[in-house]
Every structure is written in C-alpha cells, then in structure tokens.
Write a structure and sequence with these properties.
heterodimer, A: 412 residues, alpha/beta, D-Maltodextrin-Binding Protein, domain 2, 2 domains, five-stranded mixed sheet, 20 helices, globular, B: mainly alpha, two-stranded antiparallel sheet, 15 helices
C-alpha cells in the first residue's frame, strides 16, 4: 500500500546515472544552504576536494534548508545521493532507525577523529555506532549591550546572584534585562536548556531529553523555579509571544533591553540593526550551582552517507576531507562559525574567539532541546515553556502535561 | 463482416446521447478519483497506522499497524479538543458574515454615480489572497507598531528617552497583545477572516438582489409594506437561494480555515488558536510533526464533520433539482 513508486523511481534514476556516467567516478553531494556565506564555503570546499581528487567527478545538489528538510525524506529512499548534509542528535534518529544512514565508524577510526572531534562524538552516536562527520557548530550564550552595561557600571555576570543584582540595577534605570521572541517557540527552549544545564548539568539534560526522568522530577522543578525567579527579578520584554527572534532584536538595538540568550548566528542580525562590534559583547550563561560542571549548548551541522549511496568509497573520502583541520579552518572562517576539529584554527572575530574558548572548556556539549528530544516531545515542551513564560503560575500544570506527553512519546 | 460493423455503428448511434456525457466526463472523473477519492480512502487507511513518513532503504514503508489507537489518543489529547472548540467558534462567529454581507449588499443596491466603484471596493478583500489578509491583520494587531499599538500608545503611554537617549514609550498599562493571548487570539483571527467572507456573501446577495422581481416589490409597496416588513416578507424569501449558498460557503470556509491561522499565529500561543485543519498539518507535515497516522486520524474526524454539511448540501441541491424538473 505505501510502497508507491519509490522503487521504480530509484530504478529510473539509476539507469539515468548509468547512461550518463563516463570513466570518472561520480560523487553526488546534497547540501542544504543557499545563503551566500555557507554556499561560498561549501563551493570552495568542493573545489578543493576536486583538485585533490581529479578522478572524482563531484555533482552538487544545493537546496534551500527548509526544502531540504522535506526532500531528504524522499531522496534517501528513492534517489539517494552519496553524501547528504543533516543534523546529529535526535534529528538523525528517525533515519538511523529506518536504516537509511550507514555507520561511518571506520572513517573515525582511520582519521583519529575520536580525539579531534571528541566534543561532538556522543551526539553523533546512536546504538553504539557513529553515523556522520560534523563540519561546523556555534555557541549559545548571553549577548549583551556593552554600552548599557558600561553606563550602569555592570560587569559580565559570573554567578546567578550577580545577574539578579545586575537585573535589579537595570530595572531601576528603566532597562528591561532580557529580550526574546517566542512566536516560533524554539528561543524559549534555549533559555530552558541553559537554566537546566546550570541547575542540574549535562547528564540531567540528556536524561530528560532521552525520557529517562520526568518533567515533574524535583530537579526539573528546581530549573523551572529558577526560571520563575528570572522572570520575576529580571524579566523579559512584553509581547514576546508575538515576536520572532529577529523582531526581538528591535528593543535590544534601541537599548530598551540589554541581554539576549541566543546563538552566534544572531550577531549578523545585531549588526544589520545598526549596532557596532563595540556595542555588543558575549558572556557565557552565569553559574547557578558552583558544583555543576559547565556544559554548553552548541548545535552542529554534519554530513551523512545514505544506505543507498552508490559510491560509498568516495563518500568516505569526502567525510574524512571535511573534518580535516585545514578544511574546517577555511570553511568556518567563511561562514563565521566554529570548527569542531580541535586542531583547526579560528578567525580573529571576538565572538568566535570567545565561543571557541567557551566550548573548549565545556564538559559537555548539548545540541539543543529540539534536537536532543524527539520532535513530538520538543513541540509539546516548547509550547509548554511559552505558556509558562506568559503565566508562571501554570508551572506545575505545564510539567504534568509534559509528563503525559512523555509517557506516550517514549513508550514507543 | 459488414453486418457486424453496421451493428456496432448502430449501437453507438443508438446510445450516442447517453454515452457522450460520460465520454466528456472521463478526464474529470479520472483526475477526481486520483486526487480526491483515492486519497480519502488512503488517509482513512493510514489513520490506522503509526508512521513517520519514512521508507526503509529498500522502499518498504516503516508504518506499523495500530488499529484504532490513534483515535483513542485523539480522545485524550487536550490540543485536539482545543482545536475542535475553536472550529466551533469559527463556525458560529463566521455566520455573522451572512447578515453582514446582506446589509452591505442592500446598502450598495442603489443607483448612485460611481456605485460600481464602491461595489468593487467592498468586494476587494475577497479578491486578495487570504495570506495577505492574514499578514495585514497581523500587523494591524501588533502591539508595538500596529494600528492597535499606536492607538494604545496615544492614550496610555508617554514618550520618554531610555538610558541611551533613544526614544521609547512608558505605558501605564501594557498594550493588548491580541494574537499572543490564549483567550482572544482566536477571535482576532476570526475577525480578520470575516473581512473577506463578508465580501463574498455581499457579492452573492448583490447578484440575488438583481433577480428580485420588481413587480412584487411594487405590489407590496401598494399594499403599504416598507422597511423591515418589506425586507422580511418580500425581499428575503426571494433571496433564499442566495442565502442558502452564502450559508454553505461560509460553513465550508469556517471548517477549512487554515491560511489565516498559519500566517497569523501558527496555531500559537501554545496551540490555543489551532483548528482541526491546522492541527492536522502540524502533527503530520510540519517540522515537529512527522506523525502521519495521527494526522490522518485528525483529518478523518474533520472529514466526517464536513461530510455532515456536504451531504445536507447535496441533498438540498437534489431536492431543488427535482422540483425544478
């Protein structure tokens, strides 16, 4: 009933490839970013790879990110490329479970990636095997208005108490401490993740997103209590539920709000809003419990080999290539993100440097709530967080509902 | 030999009249079957499976038979009930478009210079895409830069400068954020949806009013009828076909409301503006969905509700045809 036309399509595609292939070996790569920076970095890497491997004929299908998310569900079965870009963590889980990706442990063994890419190994693994090779990631943390902090005589916050005291100063001077736009939900998950990582640590984050502990567990309730404190004593901008993360830059750029819990991709947005590099700065999310080792949030992008790939040998060459220190250095310098390979070098951008230092000290790297938790759980969780932010008195009601959803999601 | 061919010809000739319509209907029926009838049964069937939409590397579906589990889950799913409740709100409040369209049509049904221009202006919202209407109303409701926000600022806020010397507003009470409020957001969207729907009903009534028999109006006038009585006893009965169509398209429009919600709130805040059509999209096709079986179960429920109205509509049409024949 559900087999549909996939097989015949695959056969058609295969015959088309056979008819056209010449002596050079074809390597088909599906990539998912048409934005100028990422596209240029990818194209440059492909050019370099072709130069080093003249006998391989690289065929690139570059697609828009959202379109790629839909297309991958079909092409992995119907017309698989040899390499495709995708995300680690729970985002790769459905494909791994359906047997659509193949393990690449040998690539890791042969190239010493176990050490060089150690930061991201856990999140690339599932069922005891490694499924892909990452090429880039970026840090999360607090971006703040340095000029506002200077005016108020504030320093970067090291601890939770510092931050609450700093917030009080801001509010006395008519500055809203945090901006956020929760219309598309995921931004709230960033705040939750950091509060949870600082209150309970990396292991609890993983246990929660893996469904091993309940949302009404006292540790998670403690995280939510801290969030309530943050809402009451610091506070977020009004109307955040009707703003996207880009809309929420407006009060930040105007100086009405001083801090933003965000990923490093947002720096472009601040600059486009007219802020200069001197006006903005980055600080790690402050410590809440000094006994909890610092773990950070850093979503990674990676390459995978589909099970139906025709040219697995060269696909593995590409995987080994993209994780090489020199390739990662160049690639990430172009897109303004962080290389994962510990031996790679980084650009002299201050946010990149701070991020690199931060992630190198981290005892654990979380992906993101919506990448670590299964989709259905993430959706319910993020809606719950938004509800809680609009009305903190719904805290226990939200957590109990999430337990109900979790019971269903993880029972499968 | 020639005998049989003559026979075939004569059979074709004999049945020409009854075959010709079918012949012309074949392409339409073919595509209707492929795009409507078969998918209906496929989705009914799919609602009995649990499936994330993936095939294995060999092209086998990963769907798992779960029987009526999806429907049991639906019963316990608060988001489903919220969506159903919102569908009901849409159904009831959307009906306001019918009387509103009637009164605008009555108002516009006079001979004044430039009336055609006014009529087309009133019809305009129906011509523009629902997506555009949603966007415009989304901005309209925006508490920071929308019309609602600006009026609020004029009344309750004063302009001050913030710590950096930039202009900002201090409000004695915060501006209403209609689309982020779980209580009011649905009504905000319905109100936006009414704008084009009223225009639609208006145009239906305008054409209806053209066909109102003027001799009956005159006779009624001679008998001393005017105002409400004229409308209720003379004009409205003649507008019955228009009213019927207006009600039907409004019911269907309310049940399939999707674009406005997708544009204005994506079902948020936290699912409180979802309707069945959007909830189905969310659980089946959206980024955090990928539960095709469950989505199909939602679709089936929506289909059954629509079926009630559509059957009634078809039955009424059938009755009318019988009478007119």
């Amino acid at each position: 009933m559900f087999r549909k036309f996939n097989l015949s399509l695959a056969a058609l595609a295969a015959s088309a490839v056979m008819a056209s292939s010449a002596s050079a070996r074809d390597l088909v790569i599906n990539f998912d970013d048409l934005n100028p920076g990422p596209k240029a970095a990818f194209d440059a890497a492909v050019a370099k790879f072709s130069e080093e491997n003249p006998d391989i004929n690289v065929i690139v299908n570059n697609n828009d990110r959202e379109a790629h998310k839909t297309a991958i569900r079909n092409f992995l079965t119907a017309d698989a490329p040899d390499v495709t870009s995708w995300y680690p963590g729970n985002r790769m889980a459905p494909f791994v479970d359906a047997g659509l990706f193949q393990p690449v442990d040998d690539v890791w063994d042969e190239n010493g990636f176990h050490e060089d890419l150690a930061a991201i190994k856990a999140t690339m693994s599932r069922d005891g095997k490694i499924w892909g090779v990452p090429y880039s990631y970026y840090q999360w943390g607090i971006y703040y208005r340095k000029d506002v902090f200077d005016l108020l005589g504030l320093e970067e916050f090291a601890t939770w108490e510092d931050m609450l005291a700093g917030c009080a100063t801001m509010k006395e001077n008519g500055v809203t401490p945090f901006t956020i736009g929760t219309k598309f939900l995921w931004t709230a998950a960033g705040v939750f993740d950091y509060l949870n990582l600082r209150t309970n640590g990396y292991d609890v984050h993983n246990a929660l997103t893996a469904g091993e502990i309940k949302y009404t567990d006292p540790r998670i309730v403690a995280t939510m209590d801290n969030w309530e404190t943050l809402i009451n004593e610091c506070g977020f901008v009004d109307n955040h539920a009707s703003m996207s993360w880009q809309d929420a830059i407006a009060p930040f750029a105007n100086g009405d709000a001083a801090m933003y819990v965000m990923g490093n991709f947002s720096v472009d947005g601040y600059k486009n809003a007219g802020l200069t590099a001197d006006q903005i700065d980055f600080m790690p999310f402050p410590t809440i419990d000094p006994n909890v080792p610092l773990a950070e949030e850093a979503p990674a992008d990676a390459f995978f080999i589909p099970t139906n790939a025709k040219n697995v040998e060269d696909a593995k060459k590409w995987l080994a290539f993209v994780a090489r220190p020199d390739v990662q250095t160049e690639w990430n310098a172009t897109i303004g993100q962080l290389p994962i390979n510990a031996k790679a070098e980084i650009s002299d951008d201050k946010f990149i440097q701070e991020g690199f230092a931060l992630l190198n000290q981290a005892t654990g790297i979380a992906q993101f709530y919506d990448r670590d938790a299964p989709a259905e759980m993430a959706k319910a969780g993020m809606e719950g967080f938004q509800k809680f932010m609009l009305d903190p008195s719904t805290k226990m009601e939200v957590l109990e509902r999430l337990d109900e959803v979790a019971a269903e999601v993880y029972a499968k | 030999m020639s005998d049989t061919s003559a026979n075939r010809d004569s059979w074709l000739t004999r049945n020409k009249l009854s075959i010709a319509p079918w012949f012309f209907l074949i392409p339409a029926l073919f595509f209707f079957a492929i795009y409507v009838i078969i998918p209906i049964f496929e989705s009914l069937w799919l609602s009995l499976y649990e499936w994330n939409g993936l095939y294995t590397a060999d092209g086998e579906s990963t769907a798992m038979w779960v029987g009526f589990d999806n429907y049991v889950k639906l019963w316990d799913d608060p988001n489903f009930w919220v969506s159903l409740k919102n569908n009901l709100a849409w159904l009831i409040l959307y009906m306001l478009a019918v009387p509103a369209g009637l009164f605008i049509a009555l108002f516009l049904n006079q001979t004044v210079t430039g009336m055609r221009f006014y009529k087309s202006m009133f019809f305009f919202p129906f011509v523009i895409s629902q997506v555009v209407v949603g966007l415009i109303f989304g901005w309209f409701y925006n508490p920071d830069f929308g019309v609602v926000g600006s009026i609020w600022q004029a009344i309750f806020c004063e302009e001050t400068t913030n710590i950096l010397g930039n202009t900002t507003f201090k409000c004695s009470r915060p501006a209403p954020d209609i689309l982020s409020s779980p209580e009011y957001a649905t009504y905000g969207i319905i109100f936006a949806g009414l704008w084009p729907q009223i225009a639609y009903c208006m145009i239906l009534y305008l054409t209806g009013l053209n066909n109102v028999a003027s001799d009956q109006i005159e006779a009624a006038r001679l008998d001393g009828a005017k105002g409400w009585k004229m409308l209720w006893y003379v004009v409205l009965p003649q507008l019955r076909p228009a009213t019927f169509i207006a009600v039907v398209v409004t019911v269907i429009g309310a049940l399939r409301s999707f674009d406005m919600i997708a544009i204005m709130t994506q079902g948020g805040p936290f699912g409180s503006t979802n309707v069945l059509a959007h909830y189905m999209y969310e659980v089946a096709i959206s980024e955090y969905g990928e539960r095709y079986g469950y989505g199909s179960a939602v679709a089936t429920v929506l289909f059954l509700i629509m079926l009630v109205y559509i059957s009634y509509f078809l039955w009424r049409m059938y009755q009318d045809e019988k009478v007119s024949r």
